[in-house]
UniProtKB/TrEMBL annotation:
<keyword id="KW-1134">Transmembrane beta strand</keyword>
<dbReference type="GO" id="GO:0009279">
    <property type="term" value="C:cell outer membrane"/>
</dbReference>
<keyword id="KW-0732">Signal</keyword>
<keyword id="KW-0998">Cell outer membrane</keyword>
<feature type="domain" description="TonB-dependent receptor-like beta-barrel">
    <location>
        <begin position="241"/>
        <end position="640"/>
    </location>
</feature>
<keyword id="KW-0798">TonB box</keyword>
<dbReference type="InterPro" id="IPR012910">
    <property type="entry name" value="Plug_dom"/>
</dbReference>
<protein>
    <submittedName>
        <fullName>TonB-dependent receptor</fullName>
    </submittedName>
</protein>
<keyword id="KW-0472">Membrane</keyword>
<dbReference type="InterPro" id="IPR011276">
    <property type="entry name" value="TonB_haem/Hb_rcpt"/>
</dbReference>
<dbReference type="GO" id="GO:0044718">
    <property type="term" value="P:siderophore transmembrane transport"/>
</dbReference>
<dbReference type="GO" id="GO:0015232">
    <property type="term" value="F:heme transmembrane transporter activity"/>
</dbReference>
<feature type="signal peptide">
    <location>
        <begin position="1"/>
        <end position="26"/>
    </location>
</feature>
<keyword id="KW-0812">Transmembrane</keyword>
<keyword id="KW-0675">Receptor</keyword>
<dbReference type="InterPro" id="IPR039426">
    <property type="entry name" value="TonB-dep_rcpt-like"/>
</dbReference>
<dbReference type="GO" id="GO:0015344">
    <property type="term" value="F:siderophore uptake transmembrane transporter activity"/>
</dbReference>
Length: 674
């Protein structure tokens, strides 16, 4: 199959990978042919490097260039236009979370430089990192437990931080480099900054970076203040690399801190139970891999990691209690890729690996145990294998993972032990050099979280949490069919057209939902739920002008109660395009997001809006890299240009909140490289 791909595409991708995303963006104005996002290289879908648009796994890749152009405060806002992705909750930076195909919270696996990010404490958020420190974000849609274990029912979001190669320019005479970036946004009068430097000496390279922003409360499209949206964020990154021969060692540390004032239930529209909150996260990873072209059977990769999240909340009213929410994840993930041929007409890439991690969590209030976030722990062991077989024009992938969980709480006698097999198989057929249909089947699961199993105490005045140690793991059975299309020289020499269309049906057994009654709150298993839909991505690029369309239409149903699932977003389409003035180094573009009315909400859940109105959002942006000063870059943008007042269905309620989503926002940034 690989032999039928255009040679020019492979050469372009090789050049991009060699230069690094940041180096590419800081160089002279782009060449006449520019790779589309579906040409990006990703290892998220298969754990081996694959061109995104050639995979039987729908993976959307956001490059460093796109991350900086969007200039968002959170990862969730950065990926908002990916088909099948919706944002959950009010737009408070540390509380905003993504949904993938209507599934969020513990049903998405988050990874930072290979480290699992398992933190989840009700309504408080999960992703704590400034996007400006990221070089790439991969969003895999659909079940991924065959490679990533528990939680990957909705998908996987893989984040990679910047490296020395992204900062040291390849054409530099000195083995050092750096950049400064400063910016302003009108919403909240926000100032943000980023400084990074790197140096190389022989086989060693080091990097240091710090970023942050400070803003006051935002204003919605109707002129209302959006309460408790002010932030003061600081984020640091340090990295040491050693590359002796065919070995690569990478030691990194990421530190995040946000100081703000938030409701305890920060991702809801509530304005009660306000607290002074400090959010801190520390992620340390040590990665080693070995790659010798003369030894195709041996390509090991090992990641050892420590991930610690601590929330400290001082309540401003009532008892003025001081709460802490603390979780630590320690783990190791090791794999080996072997490449070989058995009969001469087939090629195998066999991945064998194992993962072990331990979660320890503890909640306190005024120094005593807080049962709303129970003191508990879990040990997880996973063993996985995958064989990717290329046979002529066919590519067959089979994967299987075994996970064993052991969960316990300090104040409970009901320890839980569960295990699960997660299989996956896919078949792709390269019908012509431009057409590749595929079909896949995958199973995934999510073990009940420690909080779901052992939570107790007061939810809110007059309402108590009831633990449910009998919760069963969620399991999903997903069948998917799609087609990848790639054309070159369509309307002019050197242009590119890429397209992917996917249809899926995900049946979920023992779906865990939280029910809030008058006097108590409890989690239960729903016997059967179903989410199905269609997603599409189309990208066209001539080098001078470019355009893209992404769309998704999803439907979710609680088959047990014959009710719609509340978390499934409305149908949506995003149109984008722009023009590059190559000689002047100017790029101008626009994005128009169209969202349909969402009227499929359950009528047996109190507090939900019966209908959320549709809306359209127009964003404009421009970038200028002056030809007379190639080390400078200027970015400007106008988000929600018409200052539209709208709400997403994921936080609309009945009665409606007193405010809408963030209104018009002007932003500008300047980057200086050296």
């Amino acid at each position: 199959m690989a032999s039928r791909r255009p040679i020019g595409l492979c050469a372009t991708l090789a050049a991009i990978c060699a230069a690094g995303p940041l180096a590419a963006q800081q160089a002279d104005p782009p060449p006449a042919v520019v790779a589309t996002p579906l040409d990006a290289v990703t290892a998220t879908g298969t754990r081996t490097p694959t061109i995104s648009g050639d995979s039987a796994v729908p993976v959307s890749v956001l490059s460093r260039e796109e991350i900086l152009e969007r200039d968002a405060r959170s990862v969730s806002e950065t990926i908002r236009d990916v088909p099948g992705v919706e944002l959950s909750g009010v737009g408070r930076t540390t509380a905003l979370q993504p949904l993938i195909r209507g599934l969020g919270d513990d049903r998405i696996v988050f990874r930072i430089d290979g480290a699992r990010n398992n933190f989840n404490a009700g309504h408080r958020g999960r992703i704590f990192i400034d996007p400006e420190l990221l070089r790439q974000i991969d969003v895999m849609r659909g079940p991924g437990s065959a490679l990533y274990g528990s939680g990957a029912i909705g998908g996987v979001i893989n984040m990679r931080t910047i490296e020395p190669d992204d900062i040291i320019q390849p054409d530099s005479d000195l083995p050092v480099g750096g950049f400064f970036r400063g910016g302003y946004q009108s919403q909240g009068s926000m100032w943000r900054g980023l400084a990074a430097g790197a140096a190389r000496a022989g086989d060693f390279a080091v990097l240091g970076a710090i970023s942050g922003f400070n803003n006051s409360n935002f204003t919605d499209g109707a002129g209302n203040t959006i309460p408790y949206t002010a932030d003061s964020v600081a984020n640091g990154l340090a990295r040491l690399q050693w590359r002796p021969g065919n070995h690569q060692f990478d030691l990194s540390g990421m530190m995040f801190r946000d100081s703000n004032v938030l409701p305890i239930a920060a991702n809801t529209a509530t304005e009660q139970s306000i607290s002074d909150r400090i959010t801190e996260q520390q992620v340390y990873t040590l990665r080693w891999n070995y790659a010798d072209p003369s030894m195709p059977l041996l390509n090991p990769q090992v990641v050892v990691y420590h991930n610690h999240v601590l929330l400290q909340e001082q309540r401003r009213t009532g008892t003025r209690a001081r709460d802490t929410t603390d979780q630590t994840t320690n783990g190791i993930d090791a794999q080996n890729n072997s490449r070989f041929s058995l009969f001469g007409w087939d090629n195998h890439i066999v991945t064998l690996g194992t993962e072990f991690y331990r979660d320890d969590q503890e909640g306190t209030q005024n120094g005593r145990r807080r049962t709303q976030f129970p003191s508990a722990s879990q040990d997880v062991l996973g063993i996985y294998g995958q064989d990717q077989i290329a046979m002529g024009d066919f590519t067959l992938v089979g994967a299987l993972r075994y996970d064993a969980f052991s969960q316990s709480a300090d104040d409970a006698n009901n320890d839980t032990n569960v295990d699960r097999l997660s299989p996956k198989v896919s078949l792709a057929y390269q019908v012509t050099p431009w057409l590749q249909p595929y079909i896949s089947y995958a199973e995934a699961f999510r073990a009940p979280s420690l909080t779901e199993l052992y939570v107790s105490g007061q939810h809110f005045p007059g309402n108590l949490f009831i633990p449910n140690p009998d919760l069963k793991p969620e399991t999903s059975h997903n069948i998917e069919a799609g087609v990848n299309v790639r054309f070159s020289d369509v309307l002019r020499d050197g242009d590119r057209l890429r397209m992917r269309i996917t249809a899926f049906r995900n049946e979920i057994d023992n779906f865990i939902e939280q029910l809030v009654y008058a006097t108590y709150t409890v989690s239960r298993n729903v016997a059967s739920a179903r989410i199905q839909g269609v997603e599409a991505e189309l990208q066209y690029d001539t080098g001078t002008w470019f355009g893209a369309v992404s769309a998704s239409a999803l439907q979710g149903d609680n088959l047990t109660d014959d009710q719609p699932l509340a978390s499934v977003p409305a149908n949506r389409m995003t149109l984008s395009g722009g023009y590059r003035f190559l000689e002047a180094g100017v790029v101008v573009g626009a994005r128009w997001q169209l969202v349909a009315t969402q009227d499929r909400n359950p009528d047996n859940v109190p507090g939900l809006a019966e209908e959320t109105s549709g809306y359209g959002l127009l964003d404009l942006y421009a970038t200028w890299r002056p030809s007379f000063a190639p080390n400078l870059r200027f970015d400007v943008g106008l988000d929600n240009a018409f200052d539209h007042a709208y709400r997403r269905s994921t936080w609309n309620s009945n009665p409606p909140p007193n405010f809408y989503e963030t209104g018009r926002n002007f932003r500008a940034a300047m980057t200086l490289t050296f």
